[in-house]
Predict the structure.
Amino acid sequence: MKLRARLAGFWAGVGLATFFSLLMVAALIGFLAWGMVNAGDGGIATGEPVPTATLPALPPGEEGSLADYRGEWVLLNVWASWCVPCREESPALDRFEKENRDRIAVLGVDTRDLSEDALAFMREYDITYDQLRDANGAYADDLETTGVPESFLVDPQGDLVAHFPGPFRSVAEIEDFAAPALGGGGSSGPGSGDQ
């Protein structure tokens, strides 16, 4: 009975606004937990074709598509300028591209972002490899991304070989992910295999 009286006293002292605020926080935590548990569901399966879409290029003026790279290995990287992990992985990704451009194409897809911010990001990190703009996120949705950054290793036939959700931490990590394209063994990084 003492516990019940204490709880009643506690709730009597808590205003209606506070109660609803606590309820909203609990609902948000529950929603986030549900999202984390279900984050690995679905996605493009290894060996399946990776969706293509014609998108505007960055800088503006042309268009491009993953389909333009048919016959080549491609590391497709989905990013946004507002994404802190994207900023952290960018120097390693750019260095990897410069060291391996004769063996694999790197294609960036800026999603759910402003063109001016994306262009400033590209200047800041001296990114010179091809970039496409997915302004409304429709292509990222087709790829079934769960966030940014997210990378896909695509074989010359356009099929998914490996998927890497999250940021690359080093050039070595990217090389491990891209090993099938670089003449090495299979990818053993996070997200490799069916998604």
In short: The longest strand covers residues 105-111. The radius of gyration is 21 Å.
